[in-house]
Structures are given as structure tokens and as C-alpha cells.
Amino acid sequence: MGSSTAPPRPGGAVLHAVALLLLTLACLMVTSAADAQIWVITESDGSERFTTEAEPGARVFVRTRYTASPSPSMAVPYGDSIQSAAADTGLEAALVTAVIAAESNFDPNAISAKGARGLMQLMPATANELGVRDVWDPDQNIRGGAAHLARLLGKYGDVSLALAAYNAGEGTVDRHGGVPPFQETRQYVQRVLGYYRSYKPSND
User: Fold this and answer.
1) pLDDT tier at 28, thresholds 50, 70, 90
2) Does a structural domain hold residue 169?
């Protein structure tokens, strides 16, 4: 009789990928208001363990933005900073709130795959131009983001175009002569406008 050969066991890389896939799917199914995250912990033997809970020594491995609809009936986080920044820049507080809801879901530690940071997802270069010294400080981030949005609104004179530029960049909007034909940007504009309507005072 010929000798039988046992099927090869999956290697560490395969197990690593499977674990990451399963945890990513779990994150996408999260229904809480917080961003879904995957944390990785390096064990004493050098192996890595993934979890959806923040544990001592864990570091963020994957963050997926959860874009649940806001709840205007609840107190808006960072309301004082939003009101102050809106008053200083001439923007409606509801619009600033809507951008924060769409950009970070009110997570001051949010960071995108492209490196945008904080509540209003400021890129490092933009934050520097706006004089934001600590992009993780909610008040500074909101003030910087509001100033940036106010400048875009002043340039384009249209909320949709200003939001498109906030998302995709001024150059992209200028090249296309309007909201660019990108699904991400168009969905972003509609999402912010929806949040904006939700946060506007009922008597407006």
C-alpha cells in the first residue's frame, strides 16, 4: 500500500490572514456609535493576537469608520467648541456638527488610511497651514476644520461644492467644474447634507 500524506497545515501567514478577515467582518457588523477597530497584541513569544477590545499593550491595527445616522435628540459632543468655532467663522453650528459626524463620528482619535486626523479629519499639512498645533485636541481640531470649511464656502459660494472640496480637494473640484464624479465624494456630500438637515434647529 502507498503511504498516505497528511494535508499540509496552514502556515502562520494564512492563519494571520484568516484571523484578520474574521475580525474585520466582526468590526463591520458592529452597531454601536463608536468606530469599529481591530487591535493587535504582541505576545511574549513574539506571536500576534487580534482582538476587537482595547487591552493593555494593544495597538490599533485596523480602524473602520462607522457612519451611523446621528441622533440630534442627544447632546452633541463638543457642543461648546462647535458653537464657538461656528460663531468665529460665520458657519452654522449644524453644518460643523454634520461634518464632524461624517468625518469621525465624534471620535477625537480617528485617523484615516490617508493620514487625516481628529474630529474633522485634518491632514497634517492642512493642520499646519491652519495653525493647529495639536491635531488631537478637540477644540483646536474643530477650530481648524471650521476655518478650512469656511474658506472653501467663501471660495465656492455653494455648500455642496465646499463639502466636495473638503473631501476630495480643491484641485479636484476645480478640474471637474463641480462635484467630481466619484462615488465616495458624492456619497460624502449627501451624507453631510443629510446630517446637516438633522442637526438644524427645527424652527429653521
Assistant:
1) very low
2) yes
Q: Which domain holds residue 33?
A: 12-64
Q: Which of 37-51, 59-73, 87-101 is most confident?
A: 87-101
Where in the sequence numbering do the catalytic residues fall? 103
pLDDT over 50 at 7, yes or no: no
**How does DSSP assign 138-186, residue by residue?**
HHHHHHHHHHHHHHHHHHHS-HHHHHHHHHH-HHHHHHHTSS-S-HHHH
The closest alpha carbon to 84, from 3, 143, 162, belongs to 143
Give dist(CA 33, CA 137) in Å, integer: 21
Interatomic CA distance for residues 51 and 93, integer angstroms: 37
Residue 14: CB atoms within 10 A of its CB come to: 10
> Across the chain, how many H-helices and E-strands are there?
8, 3
3-12, 54-63, 126-135: least confident range: 3-12
Same structural domain, 100 and 184: yes
